[in-house]
Design goal:
By secondary structure, the chain is α/β, with parallel strands linked by helices. 27% of the residues lie in helices and 29% in strands. It is built from 7 helices and 11 strands.
Length: 256
């Protein structure tokens, strides 16, 4: 049975309308950024072990399932989009279990019982999920005391959709990062793909730490990862790529 929830415009929506585009764009094993930066960062933060249970929240079409299964960790993925879950089952059924569900109000299911997981993660999904506080409360509920949560996201201080970008200082010969907004929470419509438009939710970094603490999760690690593309360009672009991180990884532990 699924818990009832009143939805409104401020809540995250299913990616069903763009599922075909997204799974095709990122590919079976994820995009270049997934494979080279985001997935390695998340696995480094969590340090998963054989025999542990892991929940992938906002799992999409399940690109995290194979590398998790290779570690001997038992995988369960949850996503709001039935079409993405169908694709995950088609491509990765031997690597784990996949369920349709809203991670801000998880369905009642034997695989999602309270305290059943050693680790959980939001891999490039938390900025597509709203409300933040409810998502983190559900993640905390799934974890046993001492369980770990990792979030990997576009860096909220530097990579705000439609509110940030690159600029060029001709006099100094420097590539700089421009920010038009930061402290305001934003629900930002993204470029339309397929038959629908998704929404990205920007929050300042402090909001993530506050929400984690409120859910009983203590931050124990943070890692910022630079973009690799600047290495292919000139000196100014290389310096900018090194100085302005692309991804932020946060690790938290559930208090006993």
């Amino acid at each position: 049975m699924t818990k009832k929830r009143n939805f409104n415009r401020t809540r995250s929506q299913s990616w069903d309308a763009v599922a075909h585009w997204y799974s095709g764009w990122s590919g079976r094993d994820g995009s270049h950024y997934h494979r080279t930066l985001a997935v390695p960062l998340l696995l480094e933060l969590l340090e998963l072990k054989a025999g542990e249970r892991f929940a992938d929240l906002g799992c999409g079409h399940g690109i995290l399932a194979p590398p998790v299964a290779e570690l001997g960790t038992r995988y369960v993925g949850v996503d709001l989009a039935p079409r993405l879950i169908a694709e995950a089952r088609r491509q990765h059924v031997r690597h784990g279990r996949f369920l349709v569900g809203d991670v801000t109000c998880l369905p009642e299911h034997r695989l999602l019982t309270t305290g059943a997981f050693d680790a959980a993660a939001f891999l490039l999904s938390i900025q597509d999920i709203n409300p933040l506080e409810e998502a983190l409360e559900e993640a905390a509920r799934l974890l046993r005391p001492g369980g770990r949560l990792a979030m990997v996201m576009l860096h909220p201080c530097f990579r705000i959709p439609r509110q940030s970008g690159w600029g060029w200082d001709e006099g100094r010969g420097l590539r700089f990062r421009r920010l038009d907004s930061y402290l305001s929470r934003l629900a930002i419509p993204m470029q339309a793909h397929g038959q629908g438009t998704t929404r990205s939710y920007h929050r300042p970094l402090g909001d993530y730490v506050t929400a984690l603490n409120a859910a009983g999760l203590a931050v124990t690690g943070i890692k910022e990862v630079a973009d690799l593309t600047g290495e292919q360009n000139g000196r100014a672009d290389k310096r900018a790529a090194r100085e302005f991180p692309l991804f932020l990884g946060l690790k938290a532990v559930k208090l006993g």
